[in-house]
Amino acid sequence: AIERVPPSKIVPDRFQPRPVLPVQLHTRFHAGKIDCYQVAAEWLKMAEGDLGHRTRIRELTGMAETFDEHGQIKPITGVWFQDPGGAFRFRIETGERRFWGACLKHVVEKQVAEPLLRVEAIRQPTLARQIIENRHAQPPSAVAQAREIAALILQHTGGQPDLAVPDPYDYFRQAISLPNRDRLPRGVWPKIEELMQLSARRM
Q1: pLDDT of residue 180
Q2: Residue 186: helix, strand or coil by DSSP?
Q3: Which of 22, 26, 49, 93 is most buried by its number of CB atoms within 10 A?
Q4: How far is CA 73 from CA 68, 80, 115, in A?
Q5: Around 123, how many Cα atoms within 13 Å sit in the side-chain half-sphere?
Q6: pLDDT tens-digit readout, 73-86
Q7: Distance between CA atoms of 144 and 50, rounded to whole angstroms?
Q8: Can you tell me the distance from the alpha carbon of 137 to that of 140, in angstroms, rounded to the nearest whole number?
Q9: Residue 17 to residue 93: CA distance in whole angstroms
Q10: Does the pLDDT at position 4 exceed 90?
Q11: What is the Cα–Cα distance from 185 to 197, expressed in whole angstroms?
Q12: What single string gives the DSSP state of each residue in 84-126?
């Protein structure tokens, strides 16, 4: 079922392979030090002197502006969970760019009421769905592609990656040192090859 939920009740996936936020904002946001609208305000401030940030923000707010004219065509997908404080929140599987676009637009336009985003709860979120959506959105950079490969290796190895690692890049780097990285269970490499459209040797 499709629901409408304000961004304050939505949480992006901390280890989404395709980075959206600058690392310094990502780390503080997921540590609970700033909320989504404070992230947007600080990001806009950073963009005043950085063309790269301005370009990314223009892209995200442009997407959010289409919601007013055409509505949010694709819902954000994910799962409901209960946070340590007992509140129910929605964790994003796909659609993080739509989420941040709405937050940025809210701050730029100095809106009072929170926007409502269309979300769809699914039974089983998957990393593969995230990667496929990311590739439909835009071609991956070399760094984004490396993060996607690392995430798939972390998912399929017997080792348990440390979820407490604050820096997302350090999280993905764990794929380099995990035991059995080069000998994944039979059939796993072909699945990763098919998804990534790369040979195992190249990856």
Answers
A1: 64
A2: coil
A3: 93
A4: 11, 21, 15
A5: 0
A6: 789 999 999 988 89
A7: 21
A8: 9
A9: 11
A10: yes
A11: 19
A12: TTS-EEEEEEE-HHHHHHHHHHHHHTT-SSPP-EEEEE-S---
